[in-house]
Design a protein that fits this description.
Elements lengths: L13 H4 L5 H10 L1 H8 L5 H13 L9
Helix pairs in contact: 2-4
Length: about 70
C-alpha cells in the first residue's frame, strides 16, 4: 500500500502519554477541529463515533492494538 506524500507519521509513547492526556481537552479539541480532522483522515466515521471511541480509549484502564 502506498502512502500519500502529504501524510505525516507520528509516533507516541502511549505508556507515558496515556495517563497525561486531559480527556476533556482531547474531546474539545476533536469537536473544535472536526472539519480539519475529517478532511485529513478521509473517513466516513462521524464526529460522534470518533468522540465516543476517543472517550472510551482515554477513560479505559487498558486497551489493545493489533492484539498487543
Amino acid at each position: 500500500m502506498a502512502i500519500d506524500s502529504n501524510y505525516v507519521l507520528v509516533s507516541l509513547d502511549i505508556v507515558f502519554l496515556f495517563t497525561n492526556v486531559p480527556v476533556d481537552l482531547a474531546l474539545n479539541s476533536i469537536e473544535k477541529r472536526w472539519i480539519h480532522i475529517n478532511k485529513s483522515i478521509k473517513t466516513n466515521i462521524s464526529k460522534e463515533e470518533l468522540v465516543t471511541a476517543v472517550k472510551f480509549v482515554l477513560n479505559s484502564t487498558f486497551f489493545t492494538f493489533n492484539n498487543k
